[in-house]
Amino acid sequence: MLGVLLAAALFCPYLTAFDPLKVELDQVLQPPGRGHLMGTDNFGRDILTRVLYGARVDLKIGFLCVLFPFIIGTIAGCISGYFGGFVDTLIMRTVDVVYAFPFYVIIIAIVGLLGTETRNIYIAITVVAWVTFARIVRGEVLVCKQSEYVLAARALGYAKSRIIFRHVLPNVITPAIVFSMSDIVLTILAITSLSFLGLGIQPPTPEWGLMVAEGRMFIIDAWWISLFPGLAIVFTGITFTLLADGIDDLLRPGA
Amino acid sequence: MVPVLFGITLVCFVILRIMPGDPVNLMLGTRATPEAIEALREQLGLHKPIYEQYLMFVKDLAHGSLGTSIFYDQPVTRIVLERLPATIFLVLYSTALAILITLPLAALSAVRKGSFVDNGIKGLFVVALSMPSFWLGVILILLFSIHLGWFPVSGYGDNFGSRLWHLFLPAFTIALSTASLTIRSLRSSMIAVLTADYIDTAKAKGVRRRNIIFKHVMRNALISTISVLGVHTSWVIGGTVVIESVFSIPGIGYLFVKSIVTRDYPIIQGLTITFAILVVAINYLTDIGYALADPRVSYD
Q1: Which of helix, strand or coil describes residue A40?
Q2: Chains A, B: CB contacts under 8 A, how many?
Q3: Which residue of B has its CA nearest to A185?
Q4: Is A109 on the interface with B (CB under 8 A)?
Q5: Cβ neighbours of B10 in A, within 8 Å
Q6: C-alpha B226, offset from chain centre
Q7: pTM of the full predicted structure?
Q8: Which residues of A23-53 are buried (b: 16+ CB within 10 A; e: fewer)?
Q9: Which residues of B touch A237 (CB under 8 A)?
Q10: 3-state SS string over B103-153?
Q11: Nearest to B138 among A102, A199, A219 (CB)
Q12: Residues sharing a CB contact under 8 Å with residue A64, sequence separation 6 or more, in sequence order
């Protein structure tokens, strides 16, 4: 399933002869059929082509919107768990404050206020999503820092940064990696929701959430415009959910 | 709790101030006169030092004042309180539906672990968890409102019965995603409880299977699911922003999206605080529910 998604994203120019942005007014609102397998939208654009190109947009943003929080949250969790004291209190109270706000509210507020550029979507999701990684990693670090090899590294006089990044981090990162796989699903759902509300990717870029929103106006007569992008999101969600379960079983067989 | 509340007020205060450009110019538009700009700047206290602005903000908050809406020209508190009941009704309705879906399906899945029924239920909810709520809402509107005509496309209703009818589709949309998580949690807990000695004792005593499942197993398995339900309800509060927009429900979620579009910053700020307070309240209620469900749990 992941292979299908990646193939769609990487090879979409070779999989379809249509241009996802080209308006063809003589092909407006065509139902699924021979010429257009998933039909066309209100600008005559091929839906299948836009779904394939949309995979590029959503997968790219989904991966980056997990990567940035993963990096920031892991570092914050390591520092918080290892040093403890005031640093730990400061970071964890910040985490508690971020958790107090519903996920969608804060990202919509940030994107709505900063503007709908892609950069601001990265910022909004990163600001909210790093906290879960920080909590997960901090919990692991609290246990790991009592291990004998860490105590030995301290006794040998190694620098704290060396202990954290060479000895602690490799042993605590697994739960964060497992979580990041399921977080991709949540992130892609968040991005598509933002676009559906008009606060994410802007037209005419092919993006699944945006396509569902654009199809709403024609839902009675042209249900395919909203249906197929939504199915693409469901397929992507199932893929990464199963991938997350598989990686969890692989990396934590006893859990 | 106090540091969290302090952090919430700080975040809500900062939200208006992180925007690029002058917020007053953005609120009034390009045709605003210098006098109007200056008057609004004074009204919002933006001409004062930043620490004074924050103290004014906290003082107003303590008195229940969230400012005045630019778009509606009414106190934000009044606008929020008018729309809050719709959102709370939707959240409670969806939670009730989620519980109704969860209990029988989790019990069936746990009792028939490893069977076709169990795998079918698990598969169904992997799919449900992957569905974007806005898409599911659109599909349900297409099927049940437009083609079958069983439910209205949008709206809130005038009385309790009418609201149950108007909000069934949006509540069901939310309930599906909630149930996906709670079924998984309850199923795991029930499987663990089913192997307990007291269950074997109940079976040996000849207690009816239904009574074993619903009185002994489920009661003890529900405890961890209450936590999952509580955490997810906080998520649902934020998710109303999307659902209310799909179904045009006049709640605070729909108001939030509209205020983003109209750049009504006092409402954006007021609603952000409201959402945060609702989340803190739900977390509190979850802790209380947990203590009520499990007599072994107590809080100092």
Answers
A1: strand
A2: 139
A3: B130
A4: yes
A5: 97
A6: 15
A7: 0.83
A8: eeeebeebebeeebebbbbebbbbbbbbbbb
A9: 129-132
A10: HHHHHHHHHCCCCHHHHHHHHHHHHHHHCCHHHHHHHHHHHHHHHCCCCCC
A11: A219
A12: A122
Give per-10-residue mean pLDDT for chain A (255 aa): 77 80 85 86 90 90 91 92 90 87 85 84 90 90 85 87 87 85 86 88 88 87 89 90 80 59
> Which structure tokens are listed for A109?
């507020």
Domain with CATH 1.10.3720.10 in chain B: 77-293
Which tokens belong to B120?
Answer: 């079918």
> Helices (H) and strands (E) in chain B — how many of each?
14, 0
Taken as a whole, chain B contains a residue count of 300
Query: What part of A 137-176 touches B (C-beta under 8 Å)?
Result: none
In angstroms, the CA B15 to CA B31 distance is 25
Domain B77-293 part of CATH 1.10.3720.10: yes
- Residue A46 backbone dihedrals phi, psi, to 5 degrees: -70, 125
> What would the 3-class secondary structure string for A150-162 be?
HHHHHHCCCCHHH
Angle at A50 between CA A118 and CA A202, to 5 degrees: 30
Residue B280 to residue B234: CA distance in whole angstroms: 8
> Facing residues of B46 across strands?
none
Gap between the Cα atoms of B284 and B117, Å rounded: 36
Residue A185 sits at the chain B interface (C-beta within 8 Å): yes
Closest CA relative to residue A207, chosen from A58, A18, A20: A58
Q: Is B26 on the interface with A (CB under 8 A)?
A: no
Q: How far is CA B145 from CA A225, B98, B154, B239, B242, in A?
A: 18, 21, 9, 22, 19
Tell me the β-bridge partners of A46.
A40
Written as one letter, the residue type at B116 is F
User: Are B5 and B277 spatial neighbours (Cβ–Cβ below 8 Å)?
Assistant: no
Beta-carbon contacts of residue B224 (< 8 Å; ≥ 6 apart): B185, B189
The ipTM is: 0.82
